[in-house]
Amino acid sequence: MGKLYVVGIGPGGIEHMSLRAKEVVEKSDIIVGYNKYIDMIKSIVKDKEIYSNGMKGEEERCREALKLSKEKNVALISTGDSGIYGMAGLILELRGNEEVEIIPGITASSAAASILGAPLMHDNCNISLSDLMTDYEDIKKRVKLAAEGDFIISLYNPKSKGRPHYLKEAIEIIKEFRGENTPVGVVKNALREGQEYWITTLKDFIDEEVNMFSIVIIGNSKSFIKDGFFITPRGYKLEK
Amino acid sequence: MGKLYVVGIGPGGIEHMSLRAKEVVEKSDIIVGYNKYIDMIKSIVKDKEIYSNGMKGEEERCREALKLSKEKNVALISTGDSGIYGMAGLILELRGNEEVEIIPGITASSAAASILGAPLMHDNCNISLSDLMTDYEDIKKRVKLAAEGDFIISLYNPKSKGRPHYLKEAIEIIKEFRGENTPVGVVKNALREGQEYWITTLKDFIDEEVNMFSIVIIGNSKSFIKDGFFITPRGYKLEK
User: Fold this and answer.
1) Tell me, what's the pLDDT at A35?
2) Nearest-CA distance from A236 to chain B in Å?
3) 8 Å CB contact between B93 and A226
């Protein structure tokens, strides 16, 4: 009888994995995951049995991981936190009597924030702009209510070829509630190979360079830019 | 010339730190932090110079960390992610010309979620119920808009002696928008010594056992409980 570990490896690469996540991957017999993610940690999985498939094979991958775990220890890996837009939910939905443990990781908005400065210091939300599994009307409603509530907003999956205008529309909705100088940060490939980032404002934001591997963070009404850092104050009254 | 690392150690203990966070702490000359947090990683800091003070000494602690980093390498540690309700913002607000790097960690809502199952699989938000630095009216407005937007809601600092009724009031606001069977999970001391958790529903929720070291997670309209796990579906149409 084996066990299935659903592991968030963090932004990518070994160094931002938790010690527990690394240990669990190293002691597993079989590694299951999307090829690109397995590649990111290949130095610790190279001698192992691997079950890998392409994007959009999520259900098949999860069923296979559960089946394999009846006999052996299996690590199903995803980037970021396995519990935020990751594989933890699907595994628990499909689970029969297999033993499952969820190992959390650093989610993409935390990784992106650490590059930009400290944008997420107050109440904040994560919204995915992907409409593969959510109605676009519901997504827009969420963006509007988050903007109205003055949440710092992290947009996951901000742009893809199939829906090139969603990000622009989300920014327009947010502009109805926030000043034009509100900071906006974009991070591509946060804390992994190919990292790029820039900080701008709602007024000057252009979506051209944003892609699926980006996170877009929009500040709240108190966020500001200082010395190149995007900062949201926690609210301390400083003794200056 | 030294450098200041602002390090999120994750939920507590060494094993949920990232490899990078551990490495940075190990190579720093001086460790700065609240005594309780330093205690959680004492096995890797015991031979180091330590500057520690109590709760509510945040500004003094940050000023000291910046000053010390002019000469030596300093790690300023906090639990969770240093960038979410942590010390990253205050450091960057107070920073002059010191070199600063933010090292992200696993935030408390991710840690709590991994214990409960997979509650955060869709759009979600973090709200702190602490009114030390935020007006209570603003907090209630955010809870209402998050509930209206069908966000999964993670409540940080859900209860303290000075504001015993806020959590109850937040739950009442959420009930206006969600069904009475919506799952609610409470995790105390997630992934560290003293961990306890329970899963209930909006209807049956009682706040008695909740304290400052707890995270309370309220599901969205599609969340459910299965085999003791709190699950929010991502939206996959499963083949069954």
Assistant:
1) 87
2) 7
3) yes
pLDDT score recorded for residue B93: 97
| 33-72 of B, contacting A, C-beta below 8 A | 58-59
Q: What count of CB pairs under 8 Å joins A to B? A: 231
* Chain A touched by B17 (CB under 8 Å): yes
Mean pLDDT, rounded, for A205-231:
96
CB–CB contact A104 B110 (8 Å): yes
Q: Which of A8, A133, A149 lies nearest to residue B141, judging by beta carbons?
A: A149
CB B167 within 8 A of CB B174: no
The average pLDDT across A166-176 equals 98
State the amino acid at position B167 in one-letter form: L
How many Å apart are CA B231 and CA A212, to the nearest integer?
Answer: 26
**Across the interface, do A22 and B19 touch by the CB < 8 Å criterion?**
yes
Domains, in order of start, for chain A: 4-106 (3.40.1010.10), 109-231 (3.30.950.10)
CA distance to B135, B153, B179, per residue, from B147 (Å): 19, 8, 11
Predicted confidence at residue B55, as pLDDT, reads 64
pLDDT in tens, A123-163: 999 999 999 889 999 999 999 999 999 999 999 999 988 88
Match 């069923």 to its residue by tokens: A63
The DSSP letter of residue A203 is: T
Give chain A's mean pLDDT: 95
Instruction: Using the predicted structure, report yes or no on whether residue A3 has a pLDDT greater than 70.
Output: yes
* Angular region, B235: left φ>0, alpha ψ -120 to 50, beta rest: left
Between A49 and A237, whose confidence is greater?
Answer: A49
A19, A102, A132 member nearest B118 (Cβ): A102
d(CA A80, CA A58): 16
pLDDT above 60: residue A219: yes
Structure tokens belonging to residue A39: 């590649």
φ and ψ at residue B49, rounded to 5 degrees: -70, 135
DSSP at B205: -
- CB atoms B16 and A18 under 8 Å: yes
CB-side neighbour CA atoms (13 Å) of A111: 30
Spell out, as residue ranges, where chain B has pLDDT lower than 50: none
Torsion of CA A102, A104, B119, B170, to 10 degrees: 140
Report the residue from A84, A229, A234 with minimal CB separation from B120.
Answer: A84
Cα separation, A128 vs B124, whole angstroms: 10
Asked if the Cβ–Cβ distance from B106 to A104 is below 8 Å, we say: yes
